[in-house]
């Protein structure tokens, strides 16, 4: 994904990711104001104008869909790893 021109917060990402696995992010994510850096800019948003003009590119994946794809990939990777560990443990004498 290059950019959609739509801004999203880390809170948006957490809400979508946790909801995708049936969890409430507010029960699992904390924020410590002492660790937050001062905003360098008021608003960050990707601009894909050059890609649109030069390549005719348009975004085809929505933010929520992208986050859900990332979560699915992580869950699958962890499930594979757990199967590998389980298999290794079951073959020990």
Protein described:
There is one protein chain. The chain is mainly α. It has one domain (10-90): Alpha-Beta Complex (UDP-galactose 4-epimerase, domain 1), CATH 3.90.25. It has three helices and no strands. It has helices at 10-20, 49-55, 63-90. The N and C termini lie far apart (48 Å).
Task: Give a short synopsis of this structure.
This protein is mainly alpha-helical. Helix content is 49%, strand content 0%.
Task: Break the fold down into its secondary structure elements and pairings.
Blueprint: H1 10-20, H2 49-55, H3 63-90
Major sheet, described briefly? none
What is the CATH C level class, in words?
Alpha Beta
Number of domains: 1
Question: Can you tell me the residue ranges where pLDDT is under 50 for at least 5 consecutive residues?
Answer: none
Count of DSSP E strands? 0
Which tags fit this structure?
93 residues, single chain, mainly alpha, 3 helices
